[in-house]
């Protein structure tokens, strides 16, 4: 009975919303001359980053990204608070087979390097701090899954987290001190399409990458420890 | 009036974030430091919002971030409304931080202070920002820390209340995101002033849908009737200071989001009647439910919903005096509800039970705490020399002036019900004989300081309502007339 | 247009799961589905036919060849927020399971819903 009600309710809402969204043409160029087009037209000259999405995420809308980093930080903190136990817990995974273990050992450094590559080149190629951080955390997840005894030091992780988080805010404050406003770019742009370009964008993305990587690793580790 | 020097307002958000990131490091230096970090940071925010007030009253301050002019970059737009709310938020946050100093906490203490500080930062960001998507991000910061804090006491019911809150909260924030998608697709901008300027040219079907989505989204934090199921559980299961912050800060930020959306961004005529109706339903439902509650904190939570119903009525009337009255009501509620929560927290602690029935005779054993509770109850139900009286008077008389006699009568009924259940509790505190097994511990000095600040301000607002209204009128004008807000942002370009 | 339909299907399936399913994990999956649907919708709004990703990796590309970059940036933010909410939801589910030893929401209701 409640299923029928739920379906009816959703059908009505869905129909109404879909009809509204159908008023927005799909696939047409509806970019407003003001905002999106000026990002595309002048983004490269004004931010030095060839990846316009990165330049929006880190530079034009950098404040959002600061908020976003905070949200992830909050989730990790909240998780640490809610799953806090006096006696540390263990992971319950069985040991994996030799093949998996050997493979994981070979792949782990490569995955970490890939993650670092992705966040260092965030302003040049698709990718960036969040993606790179997620890749690094997936490397750690592989190790957690294959080695029962593999441990990460939470103190070191939280040190990385603190360091990365404060350096993001400090970069913003430097912009306030030596530039015109919070998060303003204070470094030279360099030559577009090279690694050392785009001012503070790569620096922020490196901080974000380290932060996301260590946070997600801590989250995974906390969640996997369920047995006394 | 000579003005205090002020710093870049972006610091009001940047510094708390910096401090929250640093707390784990500071904790290693000494276990005691994390306690005082929120105090310091919120003290700074309080100073900053007081120093900004004379400037923002003249014209909205537009703070550019990342050196990009609006609408390209994100900017903070601090009008009178945002500034006054930021002031209230920092004030209540500061007072609760004072109370926190001696609050008995479970492990891990430093995480509590991080979440607490970030929740208040999120609310501050919500009232200051001038960008719609940024508003969403700060709303998420506020609500995610609220979910975590609800379950902070790791008992059975805390987790359940938090899950309920999270379920409602995250679905509704998705609704906001859908609304943002509609608005971006049809106006091509995310800056609120820019949207307000362009919304007139958009197909009215799209605006209506976006408006409904936004009201649903912000309705959760501002506790509109069908969306407030989370509130009583979350308020009663969270640690006492967190309950106080929910009532004093989170709800205010939610109402700000709602007001900003319906007045500045959309200003759709039909919606005001809808808000009015929702307000009266919210008020009556909440007051009826509060009357039936056996637990004191649940009762306070329902009363908080009822107060928000009154604010919604004021917003729905859409006259300048009514909106000013609504803001005054919000101001009063932000002072009194934390006072009630903090004192009720101590009463619950003494009696060892959350039930109202176990509070008999507390007035004789614990005169200080009971006095503050009674003071808060009288102020909230609107006894004449206290502040609740003036705001209720303004709202109800404005309702009558606008011709809604029936609504005014219903709102008055709501207030009477409210008086009944508060008087019942106060009566139990003072006129029943106490039970034996009461813990004989004194109130901590920090709690007394916190509660006296709140009570003193409430008394001041009650004795000199004109002073407060003098500052609230420009804020109401900002909502009623959006041209100044738009002009301030466009002028930067 | 197919993207709109897909996105709305995801959103509606997600809300359906939240409303009807009794298992906490399934409810959390429902929440993630709603999130995914909204993200797909945002990206679909930014899509322009026959245009490419907004990265000037090749000198022959000009601004006219690219899709709207703003929704992509917004989705990046929204995904991270979605991850955070999911992580916290799962944490709360773990706590609920610790206390009640069940994932069935009907057996957990101690507070008035």
UniProtKB/TrEMBL annotation, chain A:
InterPro entries: CPA3_antiporter_subunitB, MnhB, MrpA_C/MbhE
Domain MrpA C-terminal/MbhE: 28-93
GO CC field: plasma membrane
Chief site of localization: membrane
Superkingdom of the source species: Bacteria
Transmembrane segments: 65-85, 106-124, 130-147, 159-179, 199-220
UniProt topology in membrane: Multi-pass membrane protein
Residue ranges constituting the Na+/H+ antiporter MnhB subunit-related protein domain according to the UniProt record: 99-217
Assigned keywords, A-Z: Cell membrane, Membrane, Transmembrane, Transmembrane helix
Record localization: Cell membrane
Pfam families: MbhE, MnhB
PANTHER family registered for this protein in UniProt: NA(+)/H(+) ANTIPORTER SUBUNIT B (PTHR33932), NA(+)_H(+) ANTIPORTER SUBUNIT B (PTHR33932:SF4)
Family label: Belongs to the CPA3 antiporters (TC 2.A.63) subunit B family.
Name of the protein: Cation:proton antiporter
Originating organism: Caldithrix abyssi
Automatic annotation (TrEMBL), chain B:
Residue ranges of domain NADH:quinone oxidoreductase/Mrp antiporter transmembrane in the record: 130-417
GO cellular component assignments: plasma membrane
Keywords of the record: Cell membrane, Membrane, Transmembrane, Transmembrane helix
Membrane topology: Multi-pass membrane protein
Localization of this protein: Cell membrane; Membrane
Annotated TM spans: 6-25, 37-57, 77-100, 112-129, 165-186, 206-226, 238-259, 265-286, 298-318, 330-350, 371-390, 402-423, 443-464
Family affiliation: Belongs to the CPA3 antiporters (TC 2.A.63) subunit D family.
Protein name (Swiss-Prot/TrEMBL): NADH:quinone oxidoreductase/Mrp antiporter transmembrane domain-containing protein
Species lineage: Bacteria, Pseudomonadati, Calditrichota, Calditrichia, Calditrichales
From TrEMBL, chain C:
Sorted UniProt keywords: Cell membrane, Membrane, Transmembrane, Transmembrane helix
Keyword Membrane (UniProt): yes
Bilayer topology annotation: Multi-pass membrane protein
Location of this chain's protein in the cell: Cell membrane
Superkingdom: Bacteria
Organism of derivation: Caldithrix abyssi
Keyword Transcription regulation listed: no
GO CC annotation terms, alphabetical: plasma membrane
Protein name according to UniProt: Cation:proton antiporter
Pfam families associated with the record: Oxidored_q2
Family of this protein: Belongs to the CPA3 antiporters (TC 2.A.63) subunit C family.
Transmembrane annotation, as ranges: 6-21, 28-48, 73-97
């Amino acid at each position: 009975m409640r299923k029928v009600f739920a379906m009816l309710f959703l059908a009505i809402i869905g129909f109404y919303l879909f009809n509204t969204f159908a008023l927005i043409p799909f696939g047409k160029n509806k970019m407003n001359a003001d905002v999106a087009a000026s990002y595309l037209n002048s983004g490269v000259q004004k931010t030095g980053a060839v990846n316009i999405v990165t330049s929006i995420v880190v530079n034009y809308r950098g404040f959002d990204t600061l908020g976003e980093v905070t949200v992830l930080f909050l989730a990790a903190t909240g998780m640490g608070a809610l799953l806090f136990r006096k006696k540390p817990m263990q992971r319950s995974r069985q040991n994996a087979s030799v093949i998996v273990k050997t493979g994981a050992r070979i792949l782990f450094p490569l995955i970490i390097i890939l993650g670092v590559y992705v966040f260092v080149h965030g302003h040049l190629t698709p990718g960036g701090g969040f993606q790179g951080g997620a890749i690094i955390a997936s490397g750690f997840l592989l190790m957690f899954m294959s080695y029962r005894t593999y441990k990460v030091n939470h103190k070191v992780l939280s040190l990385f987290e603190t360091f990365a988080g404060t350096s993001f805010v400090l970069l913003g404050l430097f912009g306030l001190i030596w530039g015109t406003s919070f998060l303003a770019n204070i470094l030279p742009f360099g030559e577009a399409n090279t690694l050392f370009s785009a001012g503070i964008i790569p620096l922020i993305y490196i901080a974000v990458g380290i932060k996301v990587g260590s946070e997600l690793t801590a989250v995974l580790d906390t969640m996997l420890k369920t047995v006394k | 009036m000579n003005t205090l020097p002020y710093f870049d307002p972006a610091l009001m958000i940047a510094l708390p974030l910096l401090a929250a990131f640093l707390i784990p490091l500071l904790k290693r230096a000494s276990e005691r430091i994390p306690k005082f970090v929120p105090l310091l940071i919120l003290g700074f925010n309080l100073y900053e919002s007081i120093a900004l007030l004379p400037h923002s009253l003249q014209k909205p301050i537009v703070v550019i971030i990342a050196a990009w002019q609006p609408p390209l970059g994100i900017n903070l737009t601090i009008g009178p409304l945002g500034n006054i709310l930021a002031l209230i938020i920092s004030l209540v946050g500061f007072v609760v931080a004072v109370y926190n100093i001696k609050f008995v906490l479970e492990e891990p203490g430093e995480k509590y202070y991080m979440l607490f500080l970030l929740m208040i930062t999120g609310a501050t960001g919500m009232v200051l920002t001038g960008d719609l998507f940024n508003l969403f991000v700060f709303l998420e910061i506020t609500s995610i820390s609220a979910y975590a804090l609800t379950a902070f006491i790791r008992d059975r019911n805390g987790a359940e209340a938090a899950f309920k809150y999270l379920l409602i909260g995250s679905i509704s924030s998705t609704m906001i995101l859908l609304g943002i998608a509609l608005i971006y697709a049809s106006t091509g901008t995310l800056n609120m002033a820019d949207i307000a300027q362009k919304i007139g040219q958009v197909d009215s079907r799209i605006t209506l849908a976006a408006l409904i989505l936004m009201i649903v989204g912000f309705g959760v934090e501002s506790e509109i009737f069908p969306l407030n199921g989370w509130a009583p559980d979350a308020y009663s299961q969270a640690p006492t200071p967190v309950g106080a912050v929910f009532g004093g800060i989170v709800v205010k930020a939610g109402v700000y989001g709602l007001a900003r959306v319906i007045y500045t961004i959309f200003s759709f005529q039909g919606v005001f009647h809808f808000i009015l109706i929702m307000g009266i339903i919210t008020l009556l439902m909440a007051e009826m439910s509060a009357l039936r509650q056996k637990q004191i904190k649940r009762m306070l939570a329902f009363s908080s919903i009822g107060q928000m119903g009154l604010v919604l009525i004021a917003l729905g009337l859409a006259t300048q005096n009514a909106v000013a009255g609504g803001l005054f009501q919000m101001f009063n509620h932000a002072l009194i509800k934390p006072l009630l929560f903090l004192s009720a927290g101590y009463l619950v602690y003494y009696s060892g039970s959350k039930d109202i029935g176990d509070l008999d005779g507390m007035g004789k054993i614990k005169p200080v705490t009971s006095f503050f509770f009674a003071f808060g109850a009288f102020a909230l139900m609107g006894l004449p020399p206290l502040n609740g009286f003036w705001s209720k008077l303004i709202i109800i008389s404005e309702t009558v002036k606008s011709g809604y006699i029936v609504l005014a009568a219903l709102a008055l009924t709501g207030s009477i019900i409210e008086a009944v259940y508060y008087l019942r509790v106060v009566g139990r505190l003072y006129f029943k004989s106490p039970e034996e097994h009461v813990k004989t511990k004194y109130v901590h000095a920090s709690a007394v300081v916190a509660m006296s600040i709140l009570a003193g301000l409430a008394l001041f607002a009650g004795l000199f309502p004109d002073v407060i209204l003098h500052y609230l009128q420009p804020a109401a004008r900002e909502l009623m007339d959006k041209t100044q807000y738009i002009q301030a942002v466009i002028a930067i370009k | 247009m197919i993207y709109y339909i897909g996105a709305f299907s995801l959103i509606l399936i997600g809300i359906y799961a939240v409303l009807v399913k009794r298992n906490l994990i399934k409810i959390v999956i429902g929440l993630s589905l709603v999130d995914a649907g909204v993200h797909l919708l945002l990206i679909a709004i930014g899509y322009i036919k026959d245009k490419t990703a907004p990265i000037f990796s090749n000198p022959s590309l000009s601004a006219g060849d690219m899709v709207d970059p703003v929704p992509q940036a917004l989705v990046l933010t929204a995904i991270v927020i979605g991850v955070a909410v999911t992580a916290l939801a799962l944490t709360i589910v773990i706590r609920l399971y610790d206390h009640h030893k069940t994932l069935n929401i009907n057996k957990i209701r101690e507070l008035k819903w």
